[in-house]
Amino acid sequence: MNTAGLSLDNVPEFRIPMGFFLSAPWFGMLAALLMLISPELISSRWHPSMLATVHLLTLGFGAMIMVGAMIQVLPVLSSQPVPAAATLSPWIRGGLASGTLFLALGFLFNQNSLFYIALALLAGVFMLFLGALGVALVRVKSGGDSVFSLRLAALCLLVTVLFGVLQLSTYMDLNWIGYSFERTDSHALLGLAGWGMLLIMGVSFQVIPMFHVAPAFPWWFCRGSSALLFITLVIALLASGAISKAALLMLPLIICFYGGYALYLIYQRKRKLVDYTIRFWQLSFTNLVLLCLVYLLHQLGLSIMPESAQFYLLLGFGFGLGFVVSVMLGMLQKIVPFLMFLHLQRACIHEPGAFMKLPNMRQLLPQSDSKWQYYLHISALATLYLSFFGGDLQYPLLFVAAALLLASFAWLFKTLWQANRRYIESMASITAK
To answer: Domain tally for the chain?
Structure first.
């Protein structure tokens, strides 16, 4: 493991990111349950259950992990901690969890009062988080390639939240705001290709070489791909006509090039040991490249599906579950035991003899748990993809995929909970006098 260039002196208390990580799987389980109960959601992106499922996955699972990761990663990459992280984190986590639940219920029951509560909670939480994160990012004097990408990701998150607030106004009959419902695609594009993509890029620039002894991403690639993706995204959103269409064709090309190059660097790694984090990275980047190619072929008139609505649902699930969630599941298998071991080492500083009691990272989170996580997730993903081509079997296949997703998210919670318990027991053993 290569930790050169990292600052491990200002990492937050372990309970802060772990609180977010332990909360996230519950929303994945809720989304999977909703897919089990209401398989007809696959018929339209506007189905109430589909809207609820998407936001349970993107806000409840995805944003929960991303926020926790940002609070953890930023001080490591830049030596600049997020201000008042210990004080703000419970409020951010609680507001994000409750706001996501109210939003999902609002979609399911179409109640304005639920939307108003969700709006207040989610807007407040994200402004609180982005305010603290913005202060930390401004204080960073000379950030590296990862921090450059994280800054762009934070800006995209800000605009995504703004679009989301305006989007909710269409459900609350606030017509005086004048927001067009057709801008939903802009909200989704900013959240997925902006906030999600740029955040993963920024993290991958550091952690792939660090954890897997792979060649480093060249500086020109890091800065160039992040900046080009951001600029192209802005053009796609602000321009119109042929310019906007050209930018929308450029986006998948940029993303495909990033995914392909990342796969190449992973292949060049020095350690060829079985590592399920690597397999998750390979799965996610393979999904990413294939989805980009399929989208480009579709734009050229070579579609793999006759129905355009179903095609875009396939792309959405593929990007969300096949790429973003795959990355998160893999990273949790590596980052969680690494952070645990780091904090346990620190606890041994004043008690050198306690170093003998330290468990290794694979004892904290066994490889067998990571293996089952990988197999459950890839089985759910494969079955979900098959459901789009299953014809009359679409609903039964979606039911199976949802059951596997439920098992995958439940397994994730079980794995993280047991790892946290081992950490607490080890810390108690080390600090016992």
So the answer is: 1
Cβ atoms within 10 Å of 398's Cβ, excluding its own: 23
| DSSP per-residue string spanning 35-55 | HHH-GGGGG-TTSHHHHHHHH
Per-residue pLDDT tens digits for 129-144:
999 999 988 888 766 7
Task: Print the domain residue range for 411.
Answer: 295-433
| Tokens 């098959």 found at | 386
The answer as to whether 237 is a domain residue is no
Residue carrying structure tokens 């059951």: 403
Residue 276: inside a domain, yes or no? no
> Kindly report the CA angle at 294 between 288 and 297, in degrees rounded to 5?
140
- Per-residue confidence band for 228, with pLDDT thresholds at 50, 70 and 90: very high
> Does the predicted model carry a pTM greater than 0.90?
yes
Can you tell me whether residue 20 is helix, strand or coil?
helix
**Cα–Cα–Cα angle for 337, 203, 125, nearest 5°?**
90
Rounded to an integer, what distance in angstroms lies between the CA atom of residue 334 and that of residue 336? 6
Which two structure tokens, joined as six digits, stand for 149?
A: 């990408």
CA angle at residue 31 from 26 to 33, to 5 degrees?
95
Q: Which of 19, 17, 28 is nearest to 408 (CA)?
A: 28
